[in-house]
């Protein structure tokens, strides 16, 4: 039996001085190569789950396991780009490699990724000289420069305009194939969850999995959002999502 990339068993997280669990008894597994969207009301623990996966937080109880072959090969993209303002786009992407003592590889690999992401002419621009969408592409390049196998994304496109968000959704799908990386993607957008996920986990207000739904749509492009199949998934998840909000 193939070891899953990520497995959780009765996972619980409670922060000090809180009266209830943020995450309550989560049990799930994610096979290698599968991309999962995390959806749910504000405060349901989506970001907390990402932080547990990344090792930023520790579980209160239960088990959370990353496949040993993939351990240490995770990277995180925050809601905001969090670029160092006095470093250029190229220098921001180089930073993880420099911290890992791989300074010699940093310029070439960083420039290649930024070019791949459409920023080849912006390598030496500072963050203040880049649009919000460009800054997020720099942040994405920075997360990918260490060649992770699992990418954790915490609503990275939420603050962007619709057109830019759609472009970055498609870019993420392309990078998945080109770089052999799978991702766990937090979003508040039901349509985005369906578009980017092979599977959607919907958490309820008590940090439990309410829906675990596969999304079988084949090749993804923006036109698929106009198909009945896509909208069946969106409608079903919308109904469950709204039911959760009304029961809170």
**Major β-sheet profile:** 6 strands, mixed
Q: Indicate the percent of residues in helices.
A: 25-40%
Model regions low in confidence, pLDDT < 50 over at least 5 residues = none
Q: What would you call the structural class?
A: alpha/beta
- The quaternary organization reads as single chain
Separation, N- and C-terminal Cα atoms: 39 Å
Radius of gyration: 18 Å
Strand order of the largest sheet: 5-6-7-3-8-9
> Total number of β-strand segments?
9
- Number of distinct helices: 7
Q: What sort of overall outline do the alpha carbons produce when their principal axes are compared?
A: globular
Q: Residue-averaged pLDDT, rounded?
A: 91
Topology pattern, helix = H, strand = E: EEEHEEHHHEHEHEEH
The fraction of residues in strands falls at 15-25%
SSE topology:
Elements: E1 6-13, E2 23-30, E3 36-39, H1 46-54, E4 61-66, E5 74-77, H2 89-99, H3 106-116, H4 132-144, E6 150-154, H5 162-179, E7 182-186, H6 190-196, E8 199-203, E9 209-214, H7 228-247
Parallel strand pairs: 3-7, 3-8, 5-6, 6-7
Antiparallel strand pairs: 1-2, 1-4, 8-9
């Amino acid at each position: 039996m193939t070891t899953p990339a990520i497995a959780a068993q009765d996972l619980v997280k409670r922060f000090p001085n809180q009266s209830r669990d943020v995450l309550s008894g989560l049990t799930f597994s994610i096979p290698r190569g599968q991309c999962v969207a995390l959806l749910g009301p504000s405060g349901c623990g989506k970001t907390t789950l990402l932080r547990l996966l990344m090792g930023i937080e520790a579980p209160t109880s239960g088990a959370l396991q990353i496949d040993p072959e993939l351990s240490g090969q995770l990277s995180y993209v925050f809601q905001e780009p969090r670029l160092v303002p006095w470093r250029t786009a190229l220098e921001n992407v180089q930073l993880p490699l420099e911290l890992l003592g791989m300074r010699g590889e940093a310029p070439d690999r960083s420039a290649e990724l930024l070019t791949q992401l459409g920023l080849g002419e912006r390598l030496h621009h500072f963050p203040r000289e880049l649009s919000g969408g460009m800054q997020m592409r720099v942040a994405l390049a920075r997360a990918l420069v260490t060649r992770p196998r699992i990418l954790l994304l915490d609503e990275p496109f939420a603050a962007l305009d619709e057109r830019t968000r759609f472009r970055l959704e498609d870019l993420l799908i392309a990078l998945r194939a080109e770089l052999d990386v799978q991702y766990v993607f937090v979003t508040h957008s039901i349509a985005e969850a369906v578009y980017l996920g092979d599977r959607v986990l919907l958490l309820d207000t008590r940090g439990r999995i309410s829906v675990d739904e596969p999304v079988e749509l084949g090749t993804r492009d923006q036109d698929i959002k106009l198909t009945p199949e896509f909208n069946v998934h969106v409608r079903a998840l919308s109904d469950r999502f709204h039911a959760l909000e009304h029961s809170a």
